[in-house]
Amino acid sequence: MNSRTSQLEADQTIDLRLDNPDDGSGSATQDSAAREPSQPAARRRKMTLTTRVSAVLTFALFAVAILAPIVAPYEPDIGDRSQRLLPLFSGSHVLGTDGQGRDILSRIIWGARPSLLAGVVPVLVAALVGTALGLVAGRGSRRVHSVIMRVLDVFYAFPAVLLAIAIAAALGSGISNAIVALSFILIPPVARVAEAEVSRVRSTDFMEAAAVSGAGWWSISIRHVLPNVAPAIVVYCTALVGLSIVYAAGLGFLGLGIAPPTAEWGLMVNDLRQYTFSQPGIAVVPAVVITIASLLFNLLGDGLRDWLDIRSEAQ
Amino acid sequence: MTRFLLRRLALTIPILIGVSIVMFITIKITPGDPVASLLGPTGSPEARVALTEKLGLDRPLIVQYAKWFGNILQGDAGISIARQTGALGLVWDAMQNTLVLAGFAAILAMVVGVTIGLTAAVYPDSVLARVVSGFSLFAISVPQYSLALISIVYLAANLGWFPTGGMNDPSGEGGLGDLLHHLWLPGIASALVPLGIIARMVRSAMIDALNEDYIEALRSRGLPRSTVTRHAFHNAIPGILTIAGLQAGYLLGGVVFVETVFSWPGMGLLIFQSISQRDLPVIQAGVLLSALAFVLINLVVDTIQASIDPRLRR
Description:
The complex is a heterodimer.
Chain A: H1 2-15, H2 26-33, H3 38-43, H4 49-66, H5 68-71, H6 104-139, H7 142-156, H8 160-171, H9 175-202, H10 205-212, H11 217-253, H12 265-272, H13 280-283, H14 285-308
Helix pairs in contact in A: 4-6, 4-14, 6-7, 6-9, 6-11, 7-9, 8-9, 9-11, 10-11, 11-12, 11-14, 12-14
Chain B: H1 2-28, H2 34-39, H3 45-55, H4 61-73, H5 87-122, H6 127-141, H7 144-158, H8 175-210, H9 213-220, H10 225-262, H11 267-276, H12 280-308
């Protein structure tokens, strides 16, 4: 039993690179399938410095959000009227103060909580639901497959942001409604990636071996398909967090997220926008922070993809 | 080609029906009782029943949907709460300004993106090639509202090169030149991300095409680099067009932010204003019309592709 499992795992490790175009033609793929099981791992590239740095910074971002009460120098919602609209790097207010004299750095730090929450949770929901849909579509009958994929096509007919706005506006503003809206628009792309990955795995020899040896639908899905499709989905979802943060802040910007005076990055963009001409420095701070956060996740996703050597057709 | 068009049109119909169902659902998920909000707290039970019947809310959902869909086909998507006129008409007027902006941004993104991507593919060791890979990652990360704000601060406020907002000079006698002057900043803010994605896509499609055997054959016959590049580009066009078509959705969604920052009097600004006024019919009409525009754009892109590439006409 044990040896059989390890044999299948070896197959799966090789399989990770089956559709990698770098491997060249189909005959080269045949060759790689015949290689020693240890070789693919050895061929795995080294993680680049950029990827490592972005991983560390991403953790730091979450740490700052969690430790906001300790890290933030000032109260985020209490301002000092006499200290209104201080420019960048003014004394103890490194990022200046807003129209109510609130410390912008503290608001960015506290704002990381709802902003990251609304960025990450929809991706988690979409990853779960999307993978399930992709699994059912990729392994189901042709009819099930076409029903699921055609329904997903309908969601692709909408510009994603606008569909999120329509859902969030209908449900009413609030962070939980924003999360629901974002989850909906992120499910179709994840499901497509998952479906493409499942279809790729479906035609492999080890799947046939598992089916022939009498494994059931669930057992095959959980033990053989999921481990094979998971890396690509995880990588895709990592990059998707970047997009989700941008969308979440966008909904906040439009007034569809958390309500003021709570600090949230998108809300801050819209609030500080009125000082574009009087204090251009502070006006762009939250916009730059959102860009950096999004960039971090995209860098991390890109780096992970290169490191794990994944290339999915659906991406 | 006619057969392709007919089949492609037939595929569009279920999508449009699906779009209308999704929009109908977003109307139905709105919390609160529409009858109660229309009647106010003083409404009698009889009035409630009467209004429910008048609005058709006592009918099965499928009947309600059919009625709503019929109204949409007749150009009636409800009355704007804030402006008390037909929502679809409001959105339709604003949509024309949006299409000016989005069209300008699309041309900008295509022309500059393809040029940069081609250069990066043909000269893979150049600085530009490295910038393209780095830049495109930045481009997919940066939100339009960030770009819009940053460009307004540095190009309009600090340098004074461009107007900071609006679509025309208040005097109204600027003509096309004035419109173009107002278009640059929101145009760049909208176009930058699609531009980056297109450049990246063109580069990788071209690198794939340049690695084909027939390109090697052309090179071995001593054809000049420009001719070889042209042959490869022809084969890279379908992939590039697909990506470019998808960017239309991004542009149509992004205008909400760009138009808001630049006070561009289009559909995006209208949606932004309608959110704070809780004017749901306008938001819904706007999203519906954008989805329709997006579906049509993709239809056009597919048709262009099929007319270029006979293999797609199967």
